[in-house]
Amino acid sequence: MVAIDPNLLYVLLIAISGTLICAAVHFIPVGGAPAAMAQATGIGTGTVELAAGSGLVGLITASYMYAYEPLASMALVMAAGAMGSMVMLASTMFAGSLIYAYGVAVPFASAQVKKDPITGQR
Amino acid sequence: MVLDLTMSMAILALMGALATIAGCLEDLESDVGSQSNPNSQVQLAPQMGFLHRIYNKAISGEPISNGLSAVIAGTVTSVLLSEKFYSLTAIVIGAFVGAIILAIFATTAYAGRVASQTRFKQPLYMDIMRYTTPSIMAHNFIMNFCLVALAYIQYEVLGYPFTIPFLALIWGISAGAIGSSVGDVHYGGEREFQNREFGCGLNTALSGRIVRKAESGLRNSIDNVWFCAKFGGPATGIALGLTVFFSSWPTTIWGYTWTAMGVGVLVVTLLTILNRLLEIQVKNAYGPYKEEKNEKEAKA
Questions:
Q1: Looking at residues A45-73, what average pLDDT do you find?
Q2: Any chain A CB within 8 A of the CB of B199?
Q3: Quick one: B148 and B264 in the same domain?
Q4: Which has the closest alpha carbon to B129: B49, B222, B227?
Q5: CB spacing of B282 vs A54 below 8 angstroms
Q6: Which residue of A has its CA nearest to B235?
Q7: Are residues B244 and B108 in the same domain?
Q8: Could you tell me the residue range of the domain that residue B277 belongs to?
Q9: Mean pLDDT calculated for residue range A91-98
Q10: Are B147 and B171 in contact (CB under 8 A)?
């Protein structure tokens, strides 16, 4: 096998992770400013803001794992980061749903699709 | 620094409490200044002929301006700490400087925005600027204080590998992101259109037709923050508090292992299930989805 220059490998890995981030943000149903007025479906903020917020929380948890467990494998550090981001998004979604449900009284429905792909409800 | 379990849990609880207050105040600060997404309606209102007395600062997206004031507060704090200031004094002074900078941005943003609306005859109310700006500063000061205190605890006590300004920036951006997606909905979806039927959502035709009369007299931003402090702000606080608490809680109890990661996934699953239960309850309470007329016609 041809030996790869480590720097090139790092650049490639960063490029791959960037691509993965770009693909992953599409799974978050962000609605932008209209969603904050319950005009459109989705989370009422920008993709950038939510991605930055959750990504940075993940950075904090991953860095703490990296700094405090020298034996931690790369996978564990990455899992710690993913866990932090997930927790941030999950708690934000939950609190956001509370507002939509009891503050604005808007049920969670979309006019764009006939059925929710997971629950099968309208 | 390695602490025993009781002490680490106490610190974690303190961090969660600080984050809860910070999140709440962050959202209220954006409501009193009318920043972020609902600002589009406040900005649009004069163009629709609805002149109003609502403060209109949109410095930038909420996370950015919030991260800005937090990082300034953190920077000043770390400078003062390096000059051997007492930590609490350093944090208070840092938070105050951050709030002053935000207030400068707020006044220029308000004046600039209103000036750009001259052709729609929107006046610049000096009394609004005089007594709403200190309110913005006050909210922002408490938020800065909580976030920098959180960063201080993480850096000095827990030994995170980042400096205080960077940690403050991260938590400032996160708080802004949560406030933007949680608390603003209460302000934009409900308070700005309170004269409409509760739960009707916002028809596109109503864009810009915000409520301009208050419970007494003309509505201003102080009335808005009074309303949002009842639900929007606390919900944002809960979201940030949960984030800070549950992102550190598994590793505090189970150490830096895969078990802790599993517990983190469990927490996320639990929140998702709660979300689903909430959705079912809401759908039962508000009835099924009604198809619109043109939708039915399109089908036929």
A1: 89
A2: yes
A3: no
A4: B222
A5: no
A6: A95
A7: yes
A8: 256-286
A9: 93
A10: yes
pLDDT of residue B292: 64
Phi and psi angles of residue A30, each rounded to the nearest 5 degrees, phi first: -90, 135
**8 Å CB contact of A87 and B63:** no
Q: What is the pLDDT of residues A27-40, one digit of tens each?
A: 888 888 888 888 88
* B298 in a structural domain: no
Mean pLDDT of chain A: 87
In a domain, B297, yes or no: no
Residues in chain B with pLDDT < 70?
Answer: 1-2, 289, 291-300
Provide the total of helices (H) and of strands (E) in chain B, helices listed first: 11, 0
Instruction: Identify the CA nearest to B245 among candidates B13, B25, B1, B21.
Output: B13
CB A87 within 8 Å of CB B247: yes
- Residue A45: its chain B contacts at CB < 8 A? 36-37, 62, 177, 180-181, 184
**Domain ranges for chain A:** 30-103
Residue B161 distance to chain A (closest CA, Å): 7
**What pLDDT was estimated at residue B9?**
92
Min Cα distance B177 → chain A (Å) is: 5
Averaged over A79-87, what is the pLDDT? Answer: 93
Cβ separation of B202 and A65 shorter than 8 Å? no
Alpha helix positions (H), B116-257: 126-152, 164-181, 183-185, 221-228, 232-254
pLDDT of residue B207: 84
Indicate whether B261 and B220 sit together in one domain.
Answer: no
Chain B residues inside the 8 Å CB shell of A106: 189, 199, 201
Contacts of B63 in chain A (CB under 8 A): 49, 52-53
DSSP A80-106: HHHHHHHHHHHHHHHHHHHIIIIIS--
**Same-domain check for residues B90 and B234:** yes
B204, B232, B239 member nearest A39 (Cβ): B204
**Mean pLDDT, to the nearest integer, of A83-105?**
92
Q: Are B273 and B128 within one domain?
A: no
Q: Is B275 on the interface with A (CB under 8 A)?
A: yes
Q: Answer whether residue B118 is part of any domain.
A: yes
Distance from CA of A99 to the nearest CA of B (A): 6
> Six-digit token pair at B251?
């590793």
Q: Does B273 touch chain A (CB under 8 A)?
A: no
